[in-house]
Design a protein that fits this description.
CATH topology of the largest domain: Aminoglycoside 3'-phosphotransferase, Chain: A, domain 2
Number of helices: 11
Radius of gyration: 21 Å
Structural class: alpha+beta
CATH superfamily of the largest domain: Aminoglycoside phosphotransferase (APH), C-terminal lobe
Number of domains: 2
Largest sheet: 5 strands, antiparallel
Order of helices and strands: EEEHEEEHHHHEEEEHHHHHH
Low-confidence stretches: 130-146
Shape: globular
Number of strands: 10
CATH class of the largest domain: Alpha Beta
Strand order of the largest sheet: 1-2-3-5-4
Helix content: 40-55%
Strand content: 15-25%
């Protein structure tokens, strides 16, 4: 790999980076410094054209002052290397720490919202409005939603039954399986009670280019300042305000499954100002993301359908949040819109 990047120096060490669920990353130390080597494994975003689009977006965002870490170019000016049918990219190593919402002050939460707003407005400048930007970027078709379709509770009830069977049928049940069963039964009751609140389909929420995966593991801090937004694999055209709501639901969730609403309010106000988003847009996004969370069981699908337990530690807070959010629906919406 480094033969293609002679300016990077001679390799001294290569250590896996343990964080991350979809791709593999390595810290590569050379005679000239440190780099992050990314091995793109996710089939949905790992093709060359998609990666090149991500790279060009970050290069252009950097020129606007957005904190990113664009890839290093090889001797031919390329940023993607293919070896054995897989794609790799070399990025400068950025020293920093990941900070969850409980490590951010209210002022820092406000800055986080402004940062996401700057990402959305910056992407609108460098990618276009979402109508034909792939031609301007010269990289092929973009990942776009094919019309909004809210989750069907009938499908969710069937999934709950399947997951209950899996959780109850394990040979050696543990406390996770017991919690899973409890949450599945609880969620079924909530869905039966609130099925009439399903967001309308079809609907046309305001869309734009978004990062696609804005959460604490993809934002690096140095001291109190964010210095790099990482992992642009999910770059695409989606409802902008939904990304703002989803990000807040990850950054500001407490272990007990509640949101730190004071920080959410500061974050959301700053986001609305920076992105030019109205309160009606945020309110609609809150409703759609709430419904999405009420119907979502991705962690249990990973565990019981794929035998993948990497996301298990997230389940207690995530599953409790759906219940708490339903109970405090009006208060949560006001925090995003007030």
């Amino acid at each position: 790999m480094l033969r293609r990047y002679p300016d990077a120096g001679e390799p001294l060490a290569c250590r896996p980076v343990t964080q991350g669920l979809l791709n593999h990353g390595y810290r590569v130390s050379t005679t000239r410094g440190s780099y992050f080597l990314k091995h793109h494994l996710d089939d949905s975003t790992g093709d060359r054209a998609t990666i090149v689009r991500q790279h060009r977006a970050t290069q252009r965002l950097q020129s606007l002052g957005v904190p990113v870490a664009p890839p290093v170019q090889d001797t031919e000016g390329e940023t993607v290397t293919e070896i054995g049918g897989r794609c790799y990219a070399l990025h400068p190593w950025v020293d920093g720490l990941h900070r969850a919402g409980d490590q951010l002050t209210t002022a820092q939460s406000e800055r986080l919202g402004a940062l996401l707003g700057a990402v959305h407005t910056g992407l609108e400048q460098v990618m276009g409005s979402g109508t034909g930007p792939e031609q301007a970027m010269g990289t092929g078709p973009a990942h776009r939603p094919c019309g909004y379709r809210s989750a069907d509770p009938g499908d969710t009830f069937a999934l709950i039954d399947d997951l209950l069977t899996a959780a109850r049928g394990r040979h050696r049940r543990d406390c996770f399986d017991e919690l899973a069963e409890h949450r599945l039964l609880e969620r079924r009751t909530l869905l039966e009670r609130h099925a009439d609140r399903r967001p309308p389909t079809p609907a046309a929420p305001a869309t734009g280019w978004v990062h696609g995966d804005f959460h604490p593991l993809n934002v690096l801090y140095r001291g109190t300042d964010p210095v790099a937004i990482l992992d642009w694999d999910r770059l695409g055209v989606q409802p902008r305000a939904e990304e703002a709501v989803r990000a807040a639901a990850i950054f500001f969730v407490l272990p007990a499954g509640k949101l730190e609403l004071t920080k959410v309010r500061a974050y959301a106000r700053a986001y609305r100002r920076a992105a030019g988003a109205g309160t009606a847009e945020l309110a609609a996004a809150v409703h759609r993301v709430w419904w999405e969370r009420l119907n979502d069981f991705w962690i249990l699908r990973w565990r019981y359908c794929l035998d993948d337990r990497r996301a298990d530690p997230q389940f207690p807070a995530v599953s409790a949040l759906a219940v708490w959010w339903t109970r405090e629906y009006e208060t949560v919406r006001e925090a995003f819109t007030g």
